[in-house]
Amino acid sequence: MFVTKKHHAKTVAALEAQIETMTSIARGREVLIAKLVKERDEAQAELAVFRAKKAKAIANLTAANARKSAEAKARAAAS
Description:
Layout: H1 5-78
């Protein structure tokens, strides 16, 4: 098949347009991935804070229960 210069130029232009489109899509994906990674990291940080607060609350409750138990035993022994 004989390819003219005009046809060749159109084909090259179409391919260049496709490359530009694909590059643009790739950049968009990179931006989206970066955004999602940032959101994930923020969520993990919030989860770590929540877990620390939860552990502290459990420790406080355990200590309070131990105190109450010791006070009850002391009252029972005093009776």
